[in-house]
Amino acid sequence: MRRPYNAMFNRNRFKLGLFSPNCAGGMAITTVPERWQASWQNNLALAKLADDVGLEFLLPIARWTGYGGATDFQGDSLETITWAAGLLAQTSRVSVFATAHTAFSHPLMAAKQFATVDHLSGGRFGLNIVCGWNQPEYEMFGLALAEDHDTRYRYGQEWWDIIRRAWQSEQDFDWHGEFFKLHAARCTPKPLDGSLPPLMNAGSSAQGQGFAAQNCDFLFTVIIDTASGAETVRQVQAMARERFQRELGVFTTCYVVCRATQREAEEYHHHYAVDHADTAAVERLMSLMGMHAHSFPRDMIGALRTQFAAGHGVYPLVGDADTVARRIIEIAEAGFAGASLAFVNYLDELPYFAAEVIPRLERAGLRLPL
Ligand SMILES: Cc1cc2nc3c(=O)[nH]c(=O)nc-3n(C[C@H](O)[C@H](O)[C@H](O)COP(=O)(O)O)c2cc1C
Predict the structure, then answer these.
(1) C-alpha to C-alpha distance for 15 and 254, rounded to whole angstroms
(2) Which residues constitute the domain of residue 213?
(3) On the CB side of 331, how many CA atoms lie within 13 Å of its CA?
């Protein structure tokens, strides 16, 4: 088995991790005072907790500018490679991903940074590759976001091909590609024991999913419901097998409000995502993601706004522990290999989830007790 010491390859059938704790607000676009502060102290305490309760991974968002509004949602964010290095140095089990925008760092620089973090963590490092979508961030770097996906993903492919070559080649090599010309390139040391760290991406376009099928171990995808999610899993796995003879694990991403009763969970959801939504930031994010460009019926836009305020538009897990566990089991039955989770306040809310929901998943055969 590849990298038995990396939790992303452990024996749990359904893997769990935390998404976006490096960003202010996490995934919740809300003004409630307990909203997530992405301080180093909070992130470190959370990583140790995730390690203790046996979560498989921590996944950051690479964000360079915030979304404005009353809270400047995700305005504060810890840079993901250095964040991963710090957390990996102080944990022992959990796998920590860095998220890299292909256009923002030279592949040889990135190759060496990733290899270094891989070594200091004993091989618990993981890599999320982002080929770009957020126009203001590209403008901030003085770069043009290529208009078409094909160019973005061709660039991403060449970027990753150089890293893989630098990691696998024992000799210095020259490179004459479409985007890079390199002379006597190398990266030493290689990642730990010469194997690749777990690789993921979260493209939603055909090009993005094709990139995952060709290169990655895992594709993360946002779902609307488990029936259409099951169809996505079937299609991308078939494509990975037919076009690239590869196996691809498909994960989804969720936000969680888990309370002692269903009513309590729904009331809190309404409180933070409707009564105290940061509406200006919600609008900004939705328009940047092109959500308004589609001609959704008015009532659907309203529901979408709430889902964005509640958790960046990802899949809701709202209810008591039985309900939340049942919805996760449905996701697993749809063919997903895992999910990332986000909470309004990760540190306050993860202990209850770990105590109540994880044992239910163990009893359902999705996870092994620690
Ligand atoms: C789980 C997950 C993690 C993501 N992480 C980031 C990120 O850190 N930074 C970013 O700019 N985009 C991130 N994205 C956006 C995707 O990488 C991708 O660009 C987006 O879904 C659009 O798909 P496309 O590139 O195929 O058009 C993420 C998406 C998901 C679902």
Answers:
(1) 13
(2) 7-363
(3) 31
The dihedrals phi and psi of 340, each to the nearest 5 degrees, come to -95, 150
Ligand 1 atom at minimal distance to the Cα of residue 133: 19
Q: What is the CA(130)–ligand 1 centre distance, in A?
A: 6
CA–centroid distance, residue 359 to ligand 1 (Å): 31
Does residue 144 sit within a domain? yes
Does residue 45 sit within a domain? yes
pLDDT by residue, tens only, the chain of 370 residues? 789 999 999 999 999 999 999 999 999 999 999 999 999 999 999 999 999 999 999 999 999 999 999 999 999 999 999 999 999 999 999 999 999 999 999 999 999 999 999 999 999 999 999 998 999 999 999 998 877 889 999 999 999 999 999 999 999 999 999 999 999 999 999 999 999 999 999 999 999 999 999 999 999 999 999 999 999 999 999 999 999 999 999 999 999 999 999 999 999 999 999 999 999 999 999 988 877 554 556 667 788 899 999 999 999 999 999 999 999 999 999 999 999 999 999 999 999 999 999 999 999 999 999 9
The response to whether residue 208 sits with its C-beta less than 6 Å from ligand 1 reads yes
Q: For 12, phi and psi rounded to 5 degrees?
A: -65, 130
Looking at the 3D structure of the chain, how many domains does it have?
A: 1
Q: Is residue 234 part of a domain?
A: yes
65 CB neighbour count, 10 Å cutoff: 14
Q: Residue 164 sits in a domain of what CATH number?
A: 3.20.20.30
Structural domain contains residue 368: no
What is the DSSP secondary structure assignment for residue 13, as one 8-state letter?
Answer: S
Instruction: Say if ligand 1 is within 6 A of residue 346 CB.
Output: no
